[in-house]
Every structure is written in C-alpha cells, then in structure tokens.
What we know:
- The structure is a single chain.
- The chain is an alpha/beta fold.
- The chain has three domains: 2-216, no CATH class; 228-378, Alpha-Beta Plaits, CATH 3.30.70; 403-637, TIM Barrel (Alpha-Beta Barrel).
- The chain has helices at residues 2-8, 22-58, 64-86, 97-122, 127-147, 152-171, 176-218, 228-245, 259-266, 268-285, 310-325, 353-369, 380-399, 439-448, 452-467, 489-500, 515-518, 522-533, 549-555, 565-569, 575-591, 603-611, 628-636, and strands spanning 249-256, 291-294, 299-305, 328-330, 333-335, 339-346, 375-377, 405-414, 419-431, 435-437, 475-479, 508-512, 537-543, 560-563, 594-597, 616-617.
- The strands form three sheets. Strands 8-9-11-12-13-14-15-16 form an eight-stranded mixed beta barrel, surrounded by four helices. A five-stranded mixed sheet has the order 2-3-1-6-7, with helices on both faces.
- α15 (452-467) runs parallel beside α16 (489-500).
- The longest helix is centred in the first third of the chain and has 43 residues, at 176-218.
- The termini are far apart.
- The site of one magnesium ion has 4 residues, from loops.
Amino acid sequence: MNALMRILSGDQSCFGGPVLDEHDAARARADQINALCRYTRGMMVVNIVSAIVFITAGMQTGQAEAAVSWGFVVIVYAAFVYLKATRPRAAVTQMSERTIRRAVRNAFVLGSLWALLPIFFFDSGSTALQLLIICVCTGFLCGGAFVLASIPIAAIAFMLPIVGALAFVFLGRADPMDMLVAILMFMYLFVLVRAVVSHGHEMLDRLAGKYSAQREAKEDSLTKLPNRAALRVVIDEASARLDRFGDPFAVFYLDLDKFKSVNDDFGHFAGDQLLVQVAERLSACVRDVDSVARIGGDEFAIVCVGVCSPKAAMVLAERILKAFAVPFIVEGTRRVNATSIGIALAPSDGRSAETLLRKADAALYRAKREGRGTFCFFEEADDTLVSNRRAIERDLRNAIGTDAVYLEFQPFLSLDSDRIAGFEALVRWNHPERGLIGPATFIPIAEDAGLMQELGEHILATACREAATWPSTMRLAVNFSVVQFRSEAISGVILKLLEQNGLAPERLEIEITESIFLAQAERAVEILEHLSSLGIQISLDDFGTGYSSLTSLRKLPLNRLKIDRSFVNEVTTDPECACIVRSVLGLAANMNISVTAEGVETPEQLAFLRMNHCEEVQGYLIGRPLSASVARNLAEHAGLVHCAA
Ligand code: C2E
Ligand code: MG
Ligand code: MG
C-alpha cells in the first residue's frame, strides 16, 4: 500500500528513477506540474473538439443519445478543467504529493472517459465509426503520453484505461484481424510507457542538477553556510518584514583575527578546518530564526532578527566572543582565534543589504583597530574612516615601484670610533594630494592589504642599490615586517639582491620587532636563523616595548638590540629608565649582543650612553633621516665625521 501511494505520488525511484531529498522532490513536483499546466488548456480544447466530432458521428448511428450524453460529460469535464487552468495562480516553487495524486486522478478520469468509446460504441458502430474510434483512441494515447510525460505515472494512469478498453473489445472478438490490432495496441502502449518513464527520469535528473547548481551558487562549499549572494536575500527579506510589520534586525560583520597566520603557519587545509569550526560555533550561538553566512575568506555575517536595541545585539556579540575564547583544534593543536565584530542596526543605520553590510564592515574596521577580539556598533565617523583607508590602499597599490615611495637614510654613530657606522633605511610616501605619509600610517595598511611583500621588495632593492655606492665598511639596516617572513621565498629575494648589488651579507642588518612572536611565526624564526647562518645580521628594533622582550633574546639569532627611544628619551630625567637602560646594556654585553640606543636627541642622553659603554647611537642629535644623496655624501666622508658631543 505504501509503495502504491509512493508510485501515485510521482516517486520515480520506484521505477529506478533518481532519488531526491524531500526539499528537492517538492521543488521537482512544482516544476512537473508547471510543465503540465503549460499544455492543459490546449489539451482540453482538443478533448472538447474530439467530443464534438464524435457526437456528430454518433448522431448518425443508433446510439445517438448515448453519444450525446457521453460527449456532454466529456465537454463539461474538459471545460471545467480548462476554466480552472485559466485562473491566475501564484507562482509556487514547492508542491505536495497530494497535488501529484490529484493530477494522476484527473488523468485517470479523463482516460476512462475516452475508454468508454470502444466499450460502448465499437461493437455496434459502422466501419467508419470504428475507424474513428480507433483513430481517436490512438491519437489520445500518443497525445496524452506526450502531454503528461512530465509526470509519468499520470501519463500511465491516462493510457491504461484506454488500452484496457481496446484490449477488452479486440480480445473479445474472434476475428484474427482484431487480434493483430490488439497486438499493435499493446506494442504502442509498451513503447509509450518506456518513453514516458525514461523521459520522466531524465527530467528529474535535469531538475536535480539544476537545484544543486542553484544551491551551490548560494552556498559556501566549505562551510555549507549561505554565501554573500544568499545573505543579501536574507537581509532583503528581513528588510521587507521591517517595512510590513516593523520588525527590527541587526547585521553582524565578523572577521577572524590573525586568520592569515593559521594559513601561513599550518597550511590551507588547517585554515579550512578552522573555518568549518568557526561556522559551527557561530551557528550554535544564534537562534534558528537568525542566519549565519560566510561572505569571504575569513569573513562571516549574521542577520539577527527582532533586535530592537543595541543592548540586545550586545548580548549576542558577547556570546560570540565568549564562544571564541574556547580554543579551536587546528592540526591537533589548541589555538585561540578571536574574532572582531562590527554591528549595524536596522532601521537606525539603514534598511538595504548594501548599506547595512557597508556600515557593519566600517564598524568592524574600528573594532579591529581598537584591539581585536571586540565589537563595535556603527558610528557615522566610521564611514569616512573606512573610505579613507580604502582610498589610501588603492593609491598605495599604484605608488609602489614609483618615485612617490622612496627611502631616507638615518645614520648610526659608533661611539667606539666616533664615526658613522652605517644607515637605517626608512621608507616614505609622497602622496600627490595628501602630502608626505609616514610609514607608521601606511605600513599597517600595506600589511593588511597584502601589499607588504611587494613593498618590502621595492624597499630592499632600493636600499641595496644605494648601499652599493657607500664605502664597503658601511652597514645597511632595513626594517622588515613580520608579514614578509611568511614565505620562505624572502631568503631567495634577499640573497639575490645582495649578490646583484655586490654587497657582502654581513653588511645587511635586518631589523625586526617583537611582533614576530605575536604572529606565532615559528617559520619566521627559522628563516631568520637561516639568514643569520649566511652572515646576515639580525637586529631587534624597539627593544623593551614588546611583551616578550626576554623571550626574544632567547629565541632569535640576534646580533643587535635597539633600545627603544621611549627609554632613551627619559634616561636623564627618570632614574628608573636610567636603571633599565644600564641593565639592558649589561645584559647585552653578557650575551655578546651589540646595542644601539635609538632616539638620542640631547647631548646629556649621549653622554649618559657613552658613560655606560653603549657602542652605538642613533637619533636626531646625530642625524635626522637624510635623502639618499645627502646620505651618500655623508657616507663618503664618514671617516671625517665626528660627533659634536
Ligand atoms: P623604527 O625602525 O624604530 O625607526 C625609527 C623611527 O624613529 C623613524 O620614524 C625615525 O624617523 C624616528 N626617529 C629617529 N630618531 C629619532 C629621534 O631622535 N627622535 C624622534 N622623535 N624620532 C626619531 P619613521 O621613519 O616614521 O618610522 C617609523 C617606523 O616605521 C619605524 O620605526 C619602522 O618600524 C617602520 N618603518 C620605517 N621604514 C620602514 C620600512 O622600510 N619597512 C618596514 N617594514 N617598516 C618601516
Ligand atoms: Mg628600525
Ligand atoms: Mg625603533
């Protein structure tokens, strides 16, 4: 019974057809019925005309009354179906099994009406009428099969009574000719059923393919969450509900902190693992009525409905941050990956998907700047901040490699010899409209925008070219961003540039900061060790400002420490600072690491450093960052330059 119901409901898997899940099956039913509806009215007209033709022919026989009664029933039924089909229908994308069963029943009723023709009129009819009956039955068999082919079981339900009636009539007669006609009929039925069933399978296969392609277009293939396109639809729907019922909602824009370093340190497979876990965790944080989507590499969004105040949105934001405090498991290791969140509220911040996403993104940008692992609500000032940054990013992309991005060189003074020992290359950007932009502003933008490799290579190439013009004793210090050590290719780039410019590895000093440990860059340390083994000098910049200064001394292959200028600044005014600087100098001497004191601005500071056996100093007192030509000139006469102090 169950199997019969399934067959009558159009389940083609009973005949070896494709198996669809319930959602796709409901969509397929709607498409099948829609395909059928396209022919319904034409088919009913054919029924009515055929009935009229038969009534006309039947009037000339002894069964005129029966023919008219039969014809009347067919015409009324067909007219009823025709009128029903002309009624405007709402576009339906899903249909129930009952709808298919109703279509099967209607097909059976219509087929049965035509089956009455051979049963009641064939035996008593003239040869001409018999010919007409056979002609009509064959026509309806083929036409019905074609029109109903989108629902094979309906086509079979239509054909069966007609063939059954023909079989009943022909097999009941002794004439061998009739037998032959009966055989032909069965053969036609067989061919038609085969054709209808295989067409039905093909149609379902095609529909299943279409549904999965549509799903893929709206779904993120890794996390199975809706993608950006689908998210827009969700926001549009929420916005429509806001218009009709006044339901407010919030859009959360999330970006994983330091996701790139997971990819770089553990590989893309590990990055994917993390994203899947993040998707699960976010989905667990929201209610069923809310939607989570993945809208970019490590960017997610949430549409939270019924949020009528910032306080309500705050509850969800705090829940998410709390969920992210639990470590994720990446490649078997536990790892905390916080997320930053930007929130836009509808209707106060806007109604359209575009506006809300843009504003949530702008708020996210501020959340990242305010220390990551936190959330921010959109504020009007965010818009200008983000568009400003975007503009800088775009301009920087175009400026790298041009003269607008250039280097200045700040000298180091050796206190042993009182001579210039070398220069530190400091990058500058002369923006056509904004004027001079300092590295502290644009280096972080280049890092975030993925421009640091290109910019770093441009800086190093320019610096090496310049250093090649200096006396061979002069050291060249170049600042490196930790981002540049994500790829091992950096070693090759450095060595190639040294060779091209004829610089000995010992003349290059790589300046790095302790942020290298924040990025968990084990690989960066390995690369530095390799470069150090080739003779390149490694220097730790801004020493004392990082969170793991002493760890750095242990883990990095260091040749030099640069004491941060915040200590040097107060060395003569703050006894604690003086104490720290003295201790660092002692510690470095014990570890056989050279020291440069940065930011020396006064003769008193220099005198203090000299007295405490600091080997090298750098700062405005000795020299400000200089243009390449002035630095070259200074380098040539370095032997003659003595510090005023
Ligand atoms: P840093 O490497 O510690 O460079 C020293 C900064 O302090 C420079 O600022 C320099 O102009 C400034 N300075 C030097 N002496 C004194 C002084 O006596 N008093 C004061 N008040 N300041 C002094 P700048 O050029 O703005 O660079 C800022 C930071 O930007 C640098 O700090 C470095 O971390 C980064 N940077 C500069 N150039 C590059 C580069 O080519 N690549 C990378 N990755 N970072 C760079
Ligand atoms: Mg530096
Ligand atoms: Mg520094």
